[in-house]
Amino acid sequence: MNVQLEQNNMRTSAVVPLQPPIAGVGVGLRADHFQYIDENKPAIPWFEVLIDNYMMDAGTSLFYLAKIADMYPLTFHGVGMSLGSSDKLNMDYLSRLKKLIQQFKPAYVSDHLCWTSVNGYHSHDLLPMPYTDEAINILIRHIQQVQDFLEQRILIENVSSYLNFKDSAMQEWEFLKLVAEQADCDILLDINNIYVSATNHNIDAMTYLKHIPVERVKEMHLAGYTDMGSYLLDTHAEAVHEPVWELYKKALEKFGSMPTLIEWDNDIPAFSVLQAEASKARVLMQQVHHYAV
Question: Looking at domain 41-289, which of 3.30.1330.10, 3.20.20.70, 3.40.50.200, 3.20.20.150 is its CATH number?
Answer without folding.
Answer: 3.20.20.150
